Amino acid sequence: MQKKLTELAKLINGEIEGARDIVIKGIAGIKEAKKGDVSFIENDRYLPLLDSTSASAVIVSHKHKNKIDFSKGAISLIYAENSSFAFSQIASLFIPELPKPQGIHPAAVIGKNVAVGKNVAVQACAVIGDNVQIGAGTIIYSGVYIGQESCIDEDCLIYPNVSIRERTRIGCRVIIHSGAVIGSDGFGFFSARGSHRKISQLGIVEINDDVEIGANTTIDRARFNKTSIGKGTKIDNLVQIGHNVVIGKNVIIVAQTAIAGSVQVGDNVTIAGQVGIAGHISIGDNVVAAARSGITKSVPENTSVSGFPAKPHKHEMKIKACVQRLPKLFQKFKELEKKIEK
Amino acid sequence: MQKKLTELAKLINGEIEGARDIVIKGIAGIKEAKKGDVSFIENDRYLPLLDSTSASAVIVSHKHKNKIDFSKGAISLIYAENSSFAFSQIASLFIPELPKPQGIHPAAVIGKNVAVGKNVAVQACAVIGDNVQIGAGTIIYSGVYIGQESCIDEDCLIYPNVSIRERTRIGCRVIIHSGAVIGSDGFGFFSARGSHRKISQLGIVEINDDVEIGANTTIDRARFNKTSIGKGTKIDNLVQIGHNVVIGKNVIIVAQTAIAGSVQVGDNVTIAGQVGIAGHISIGDNVVAAARSGITKSVPENTSVSGFPAKPHKHEMKIKACVQRLPKLFQKFKELEKKIEK
Amino acid sequence: MQKKLTELAKLINGEIEGARDIVIKGIAGIKEAKKGDVSFIENDRYLPLLDSTSASAVIVSHKHKNKIDFSKGAISLIYAENSSFAFSQIASLFIPELPKPQGIHPAAVIGKNVAVGKNVAVQACAVIGDNVQIGAGTIIYSGVYIGQESCIDEDCLIYPNVSIRERTRIGCRVIIHSGAVIGSDGFGFFSARGSHRKISQLGIVEINDDVEIGANTTIDRARFNKTSIGKGTKIDNLVQIGHNVVIGKNVIIVAQTAIAGSVQVGDNVTIAGQVGIAGHISIGDNVVAAARSGITKSVPENTSVSGFPAKPHKHEMKIKACVQRLPKLFQKFKELEKKIEK
């Protein structure tokens, strides 16, 4: 496989600076690239690597223009609107996609009264319960379980060994990675005579369009009503979402975060990795929670928080800086005491 | 579906205050309820919502009686012993249960010499090893694996894609949610000539009656002897239980907690979310560990702990309060230094 | 089952001290052992239990020799090079292994052009995609999914319900525990007009020889190129490994740790439980990260770190000690202020 640089530039709607008449044979990261490869830079701090890379061409973004001293360059640059996305488009050319599953495998197990749209694929050993609806173009991989009366809309990808319990509602273009569990019972008990009795979890989970859910992530069904994930929200691996949580649109939730029951999360929120959010609180729109925040109280919109208990990020930074200087403070305090006692 | 309020009150053994002669058409949370709905309040702090809810009737607990100023109320109240449980009973009327799986599906794969009790259900693509015993009334969902010589007693629910390795012993009325793994090898190695060699994990996992285990939780088999979960203990999602851990009765373990190998946990312990417990220590009866505690030493019974390293909760609160005031302390210290230097 | 002590000593190449002519009927931990059992002690701090154990014989290591006051002993000791490993060898005698799966089950689903070595076993309801290669002696349990063009080399154990996505490369003697997900998409998006767009994850996962991967652990495929786990590395349960992470040889990663994208981890590193490592940084050879470390910057080789943000362990210990003494400092500071104001 080889492609002319000019062809690639055209594909990504980019402008070439430097030699135009070269041929590209592969793609690689900026550090690993060798002669004949095209690579890319997204983050400013990697721009100095333009001097040392062995790549033949590098895609950068228009915004980098003033930061590049091209006189040094022996390589070709391609300016694109978003270098990272442009590179992905080119990478797809060099790494051809494998064929997608097609049709309903004879070893798939389909319940009664299942409505299946056009071009749906169901792999072997997927099990689909009664009265399920699956929209056109959706692909169900092996080992997936879909419980009774669930609906999955069009063009979804449900990867192997996902478990989707009964009555779950899933929108269009939703991607659910392997091992994720949607609609397991919420964790609810009441105490009676010294033991814990189960509170029935009668609600559902609703996942809106364009959501992506990571591998082995768990989203519990509501006690009643619904646990809901808003349109365009992206959830990483091993995340726990408790019952009756309502998450807004375009939220990002990074790996190993846990959100306790009945939390409300606004739109465009970013929650970094290993965060914990206590039950029954609200996180406003556009909030950013730093990695490992432990959020114990509601957070107003447009706030950045960090620490445990989570506080406005600047305040937490001030406290953390003080903590670092504690050994010195203790020493100085001792000296001061001595001085005074004299 | 509609029900007379008097019928519902009778069902939950409750007393009506206010209009008795009304008809209920649905159930909802106190904030979402509309005319015709019955709702409930469990926590005192939501009692003020009685004035603003659109519900036609609200279930409260007897203990709330003195805290409600009912003269304001245009709604009917039902007093019950436990409002939350009473509401669940009513909710079950309005949300009819789906039919449970029945019988052994022809696409289930059953090993040799498997003993199956009355009314056992095994769904398609569940795989049951040789010499397994399954008690009456137990339901095994799709994609479940049960290894050789395991025993599962009566009336258990084993949800889709659970993996239960060989020789596991499970009591009655145990619920295991999707993706949980019971009996994976403990994490044990010894070093020899610069590499890690596996220590065989020859023991088992024993899960006693009335235990519930959350989605994608992992419980490792013992090195020898057994990892054991006591009667009535409830474990949330994505929890890790190491090899040879022994957990008592009626323990609550919230999501994403990790308990390292050979820990002993007493009865009636509560372990909140994202806690970590170091190996080979003991947690006494009735201990409460706050969310995100990192427990590094044994904890005596009847203690509340928090923080990392975990300490008695009151002591940790004192330290946390000091940490919050550090920026001020640093400033005051500077001022004091100046004063003295003058 | 019973064995002469002399036979057992021979098996583990050990020397008996005390009565030689006894018969062993079982194995047990030092605390649980009863008459007729053989037990072992690995850690010095358990040596005092030699006086109280009911075991008939106890295996200890040569290094314990000077620490044992054997005059007291009514039991037999066996000295071995590594008591823990020696005990495992004996334990295997008393707990006979169950038969391993054999052959390809008729309910396994095998794709086109799959190359299978000698003595490969594939259990029922495992699904293997087209163009997969499986080396001799490898066992694939039930519910496992192996995507197209993946290669698994010889003598691997792939436990039930593992999901291995397309193009994954797995070495020899690799063990993957139930529910683990290998090759799920990396968590990569770019923002365009207020929504998050997926960046294709075109790379692979490569797992080298002798790696062990815990239950429900997730390892994402690279954006391009590969996510790589080095030879002999052992990963516990519920660990998250992001895309393009490169992990060295003989690394230990304990449960619930998360490693963000593009991190480089050297050889012989030990990462304890619930650690978090931020993206795009390097962890040098032989680094030890204590439990719950939050590593935000690259760590030079041969360093021990702890805390969040992680620092050299000694420095962090000093700071932690200061934090513990804060309530006292605040009090003393108040007293000093008063003294001066007088």
What does this protein look like?
Chain A has 342 residues and is of the alpha/beta class. Chain A folds into 2 domains: 92 residues, MurE/MurF, N-terminal domain (Udp-n-acetylmuramoylalanyl-d-glutamate--2,6- Diaminopimelate Ligase, Chain: A, domain 1, 3-Layer(aba) Sandwich), CATH 3.40.1390.10; 208 residues, 3 Solenoid (UDP N-Acetylglucosamine Acyltransferase, domain 1). The longest helix of chain A is centred in the last third of the chain and has 16 residues. The radius of gyration of chain A is 26 Å and the shape is flat. The termini of chain A are far apart. The mean pLDDT of chain A is 95.
CATH superfamily of the largest domain in chain A: Hexapeptide repeat proteins
Largest interface: chains, residues each? A-B, 60 and 59 residues
- The low-confidence parts of chain A are none
State which percent range the strand residues of chain A make up: 25-35%
Explain briefly what this protein structure is.
Three copies of one chain form a homotrimer. With 342 residues, chain A is of the alpha/beta class.
